[in-house]
Each structure stands twice: as structure tokens, then as C-alpha cells.
Amino acid sequence: xxxxxxxxxxxxxxxxxxxxxxxxxxxxxxxxxxxxxxxxxxxxxxxxxxxxxxxxxxxxxxxxxxxxxxxxxxxxxxxxxxxxxxxxxxxxxxxxxxxxxxxxxxxxxxxxxxxxxxxxxxxxxxxxxxxxxxxxxxxxxxxxxxxxxxxxxxxxxxxxxxxxxxxxxxxxxxxxxxxxxxxxxxxxxxxxxxxxxxxxxxxxxxxxxxxxxxxxxxxxxxxxxxxxxxxxxxxxxxxxxxxxxxxxxxxxxxxxxxxxxxxxxxxxxxxxxxxxxxxxxxxxxxxxxxxxxx
Length: 294
Ligand code: GLN
Fold this sequence. Notes:
alpha/beta
């Protein structure tokens, strides 16, 4: 689209093909999908509709908007930050730059908590989500139970103001009234007892950071990614204190990375917790640890 002379008509098809090629040369993964998402966003339509309007010419304002976004995406700036949204658990979530982008793996954590709640005959739950980020965990769990008899009170905490604002926006978007969002560095501003404590804490080790995609390495907040030298810092901190905040038969649910499973299994022995369940994700990687008190 660079040397466009004023007489050339650019249809949706032309722009889609051009953008896809451009992304290919910039090593953007899934170039066509990225092109479709950006063009659909600017034209305020679905990806499907692009194909129904394939021969529609774009006006210069639309082309300029698309150009700006694709230039930025070509620097490997994450698509979700550009669009300001992401999908998780079948729902739309707003995503601010400065907050970790929801990952599909975290759906396993959400599912694990939901099935645990369903297994019991308890109707009232008090749940803490540590490092809530965009708020996907409490919001997805709350929405699942919304029309059921089960009542859940969530406390969603984060140390980052940007995360707290983002979680509030998502909580408003999804009209969840059972989630209290509060600033706290781990348990610092927390009192009371919970039936479940959930966390998908930062768990990337120093060595792993270099192997991550540019999108993650350069643009997602380090504070949401890095978990100390071995990536286990926050698990240790939470394990250290969680027993004071859990009811006797309470559960702790962690998202983990498969590479940490063995180390964590060993480390947990030093704390007052035992492993109740280890759940794999769809790629057959260990992804969730469910713990109870010894
Ligand atoms: N709990 C949030 C999520 O799962 C944020 C996690 C994080 O920032 N490490 O997306």
C-alpha cells in the first residue's frame, strides 16, 4: 500500500492480500489471520464479512487507519494490544497494554476450579484470585455460575494499577457484581479466610525469557511474566502464607508450566500443603496444581 497512486482502487481483497504478504516478510505468525483481524476492526465488521464484501473499495481514511495499525503490528507489537481486546473462555475481554494478555492454557485453571466447585454440595464460596491481571479468572468462573444456585464472592487482587483498572473495566463489561477488586501485593492487604485461593502468577524463569516470542519479550509487562531466577518465586511466597488465609479444607489452585512440575512437587514438601491433583492441558503438558493443607 506504500506507493499507492491516487487512481488505484484498493478493494478489501487487495488490502488483505497486501497486508498478509507484508506480515509474512516481517515474520508475523498467522499473517492472514492478523491481517483479517486488523482490517475487520477498522471496518467494524466480522472477519467473515470481509469475504462477503471482497470487492468493496476502501476509502482513504480506512486505508490510513489500517496502515497505521499494520505498521505497528509489524514491529511485533501484540495484536491484542492493538485491538484492545482478546478472547478467553468464549468471552471478549478488554486488554490494556501493560497487562498480561490472556492465554488459552489458563482455561484449564478455570475449568479445574469450576469442576471442583461442582463436585461439592457447598453453595457459598469465598474465593481469592492473586494477580488477577485482566480479571479473566474470576469473571469466567462467576459467569459460569451466574444462573445457578451457587453464590461466589470473589476478591481479585493485583499489585499493578493498570491491571486493577483493566480488571474493573472487564468486570463492568461482564456485569459481574460479585467481584471485589483491590490493590494488594500478594497477601499484604488481605484479611479473612477463603475456601479457594487461585493464582496464575508470573512464572517465567530468567533463562526462559530469551526464548519467548518478540511479542511477549518486548511488549508484555515483565512484572506479569518473570518469577525470579527459576520462575518459582511467587509459588513459594504464596505457599508460605496461604495457610493463614485458607479455611481448613480449602484448596489452592496454581497454573504452572510443565517444566516446573517436578521442582514444584519437591518444593511443596517444605510447606504445609500436599498435592491433591495435577491436571494436564490439551497439549498434554502439566498445567494446573490443586493443593490442600496437610
Ligand atoms: N491472572 C491473569 C491471567 O491469568 C494474569 C496473570 C499474570 O499476570 N501473571 O491472565
